[in-house]
Design a protein that fits this description.
Layout (H helix, E strand, L loop, with lengths): L1 H12 L3 H12 L10 H15 L4 H17 L14 H9 L10 H10 L5 H10 L6 H17 L2 E10 L6 E8 L5 H27 L30 E5 L7 E2 L5 H7 L24 H16 L1 E3 L3 E3 L4 H4 L4 E3 L8 H4 L6 E3 L20 H17 L27 E5 L10 E5 L5 E6 L2 E8 L35 H35 L1
Parallel strand pairs: 1-12
Antiparallel strand pairs: 1-2, 2-3, 3-4, 5-8, 6-7, 9-10, 10-11, 11-12
């Protein structure tokens, strides 16, 4: 009260009212040395809250309102005293997924065109069939995945799109979409091939320049170890790279295209067991060393799973117009006359199911390539010496795998157990049941069929069942850098006494070799005198 009386007294002393108002406002705007607040802003905030809320008995709750306003203004100024509240994960995910539910454009004509021309798969129908087989992603996640695939189809020039499955990880999972681009519109794949070709040419130029600079230097020693030749990868649109794959960690997050797979990556992936982490750029620490990161490892596992578990009812696919020898490893097409196989037959015999994906050979490719046969350009540069060496090398025997449309009844067993189990989704209502095929070799791989429809789906950890405990490979013993022998083997320096003894032994051996020579010379002289 004394402060207010002093303030009013100062105001009354000033004759001009404008000057008194400015002085009063300046006084109210003075910040506190402890909190940094000023009374003018605080009273304005309190009055604004009173006018907005209009509580009863304002005089009684004035102190409480003042404390709440002051406390709320101090929360953002506490610094290290209290951490700022982080955004909840649910809110962050909702902000990412809100774009999936925003309707773009409108109109009945556009709606009808999308129904006819879009390659978007019917995920709702797939989820309904999988639910009967005992596999489900949940109603909410299924709808989110449906919208995420629509976003992918709207942003990419795709001819075909399918939900391949879901690969689980230790810190996150991957939703996998199997796509096929329209003809001539796969720009990313063409850029990757061009970059690989440019990289090979640049390396050759660098090596050539280094060789020119080393002409005046001593030649480097040649290694006797011969590394195996690098198996070239299959081109986009053929073999293991016939289709492309996009992945995302959560619906609403951006889709990322996986790189093409190489034979070396498939070969190493067959020898190791590695759980995915959910980060595409994570390193893959294994032995043998894997040539790539987690994105490459995921792509290799997808190729292996697809080649081993993508099956269809017998007769759904047929060979094309070409001869069967040419198409046994290349092309098949849908049979327009296929009428479907009854569920009762599909659930009793594995011979009614066939593989419609090409088998991956031990070389890591679907089509075998002869590594001993060199291109004609290299043979012309090497000349006669290269031709003689090529004649000495024996050509490798071509690897042959099972042809397309091979029945599942011919698959190898796993520890005496068939690699597949087949059943009916419901024995209580068999007239509406579907046939469910489950893979034992790749746990998490399913195939379902009803009428003329069938689907393949995978949900699992991306690991193969070997039938026995996994034992990591042991690194090979280190090789010797130089051949061993007395001429190059290092030894301890002898002492002075040992050197004297060794010198005496050498002198005695030398004297013993010189005595027979002197005797022969004397005998020759005596024979000459007698003559």
């Amino acid at each position: 009260m004394k402060g207010m009386e002093y303030f009013l007294q100062k105001v009354n002393e000033d004759v001009r009212p404008e000057s008194a108002f400015l002085r009063a406002k300046a006084f109210l705007l003075q910040p506190s040395r402890h909190s940094g607040l000023n009374l003018y802003d605080h009273l304005s905030a309190v009055l604004s809250r009173i006018l907005n809320e209009r509580p009863d008995s304002v005089v009684d709750v004035l102190e409480t309102l003042s404390s709440d306003v002051k406390r709320s203004s101090l929360q953002h100024r506490q610094g290290t005293l209290r951490d700022q509240p982080e955004t909840p994960p649910g809110l962050a995910l909702a902000q990412e997924q809100i774009g999936l539910f925003l309707q773009r454009g409108g109109g009945d004509a556009e709606f009808n065109n999308e129904l006819v021309e879009t390659p978007l798969p019917n995920v709702a129908e797939l989820a309904f069939l999988l639910q009967q087989a005992g596999v489900t992603l949940g109603t909410e996640e299924t709808q989110q995945v449906f919208m995420a695939l629509k976003q992918l189809v709207d942003t990419q020039p795709l001819q075909h799109c399918r939900l391949w499955g879901k690969v689980l990880g230790t810190r996150g999972s991957y939703l996998v979409a199997e796509v096929e681009f329209r003809e001539g519109e796969d720009e990313d794949g063409n850029k990757e091939e061009e970059e690989e070709e440019e990289g090979d040419g640049s390396e050759a130029r660098v090596n050539h320049e280094d060789g020119v600079g080393q002409e005046m230097m001593d030649p480097l020693p040649n290694s006797s170890d011969r590394h195996p030749p690098v198996v070239p990868r299959e081109q986009n649109g053929s073999g293991t790279n016939k289709l492309s794959y996009f992945v995302c960690s959560k619906p609403g997050r951006p889709w990322v295209r996986l790189p093409p797979v190489t034979p070396a990556q498939i070969t190493v992936a067959r020898q190791v067991h590695h759980l995915l982490t959910g980060r595409l750029d994570a390193p893959v620490v294994t032995y043998p060393p894997f040539p790539g990161n987690e994105a490459n490892f995921l792509r290799a596992q997808i190729a292996r799973i697809s080649a081993g578990t993508h099956v269809s009812p017998l007769g759904f696919y047929q060979f094309g117009e070409k001869e069967e020898e040419d198409t046994a490893q290349e092309g098949i097409e849908e049979n327009p006359d296929f009428e479907g196989i009854p569920v009762s037959q599909l659930s009793k015999s594995l011979s009614t199911w066939v593989h419609h994906k090409q088998h991956i050979l031990p070389q890591g490719r679907c089509v075998w390539v002869n590594l001993t046969q060199k291109p004609e350009e290299d043979l012309e540069e090497e000349g006669e010496e290269g031709e003689e060496e090529e004649k000495e090398e024996e050509p490798d025997e071509p690897e042959v795998g099972p042809p397309l449309l091979t029945p599942l009844s011919e698959d190898a067993e796993v520890n005496g157990t068939p690699p597949w189990t087949v059943r009916v989704s419901s024995s209580l209502i068999p007239q509406f049941a579907i046939a469910v095929l489950r893979s034992i070799l790749w746990p998490g791989a399913y195939a379902i069929s009803t009428g003329r429809k069938f689907e393949n789906f995978y949900i699992g950890w991306g690991q193969k069942f070997e039938g026995e405990g996994y034992t990591p490979l042991v690194p090979p013993p280190p090789k010797h850098e130089q051949p061993r022998g007395p001429e190059i083997t290092a030894s301890f320096d002898p002492t002075v006494d040992e050197e004297q003894v060794l010198q005496a032994v050498l002198d005695s051996h030398r004297a013993a070799q010189e005595e027979p020579e002197e005797l022969e010379a004397e005998e020759e002289e005596e024979e000459g005198e007698d003559d």
